[in-house]
Amino acid sequence: MTATLEDRRLSDHLMHHEVTCKCGHCDGGGITPETVLLFERIRAQCVACKGVDIPITVSSGYRCPDYNTVVNPDTGRTGPHTKGIALDLLCPQGLKMDEFHGICLALNPLGGVGFYRKKGFIHVDTRGRKARWEG
């Protein structure tokens, strides 16, 4: 049996379908290896903090320019999600938002970290320079 692209494993804990565009009209795109590595580092630190396996759900990964305009009109057709360098991560069960935010900050000193407390997720990206904000 041949695995489909959607079934492809990007890392030990991340599948291709978890990080592709959800518009239903484009080819789905994907994310960079650096972004996959950041995800795995964040996940490993969450597990180390709690001493148990803690899955992390990706609420948004790659977005095509058209879909990015719908999701985030402020950035329009550009932004880190359209470059495949960003993930929005739901706060894992068993961690407080502040704990999760601290882990993301510590492990991504040269990237973007957006804190969306009310929405329950942290944006991380591998833009190559420090950026911090609250949404």
Chart the SSEs and their pairings:
Elements: E1 9-11, E2 14-15, H1 33-50, E3 58-60, H2 65-71, E4 86-90, H3 97-107, E5 112-116, E6 121-125, E7 131-134
Parallel strand pairs: 5-7
Antiparallel strand pairs: 1-2, 3-4, 4-6, 5-6
Helix pairs in contact: 1-3
Describe the structure concisely.
With 135 residues, this protein is of the alpha+beta class. It contains three helices and seven strands, in the order ββαβαβαβββ.
Sheet with most strands: 5 strands, mixed
- Number of domain units: 1
Shape field? globular
Quote the CATH topology: Muramoyl-pentapeptide Carboxypeptidase, domain 2
Strand and helix order: EEHEHEHEEE
**Ranges with pLDDT <50 over ≥5 residues?**
none
* Radius of gyration, CA atoms, in whole angstroms: 14 Å
Structural class: alpha+beta
Do you know the CATH architecture?
A: 2-Layer Sandwich
Assembly state (oligomeric): single chain
What does this structure look like?
The chain has helices spanning 33-50, 65-71, 97-107, and strands at 9-11, 14-15, 58-60, 86-90, 112-116, 121-125, 131-134. The chain has one domain (5-134): Muramoyl-pentapeptide Carboxypeptidase, domain 2 (2-Layer Sandwich). It has 135 residues and is of the alpha+beta class. Strands 3-4-6-5-7 form a 5-stranded mixed sheet, with helices on one face. A two-stranded antiparallel ribbon has the order 1-2. The model has no long low-confidence stretch (mean pLDDT 93). It has 3 helices and 7 strands.
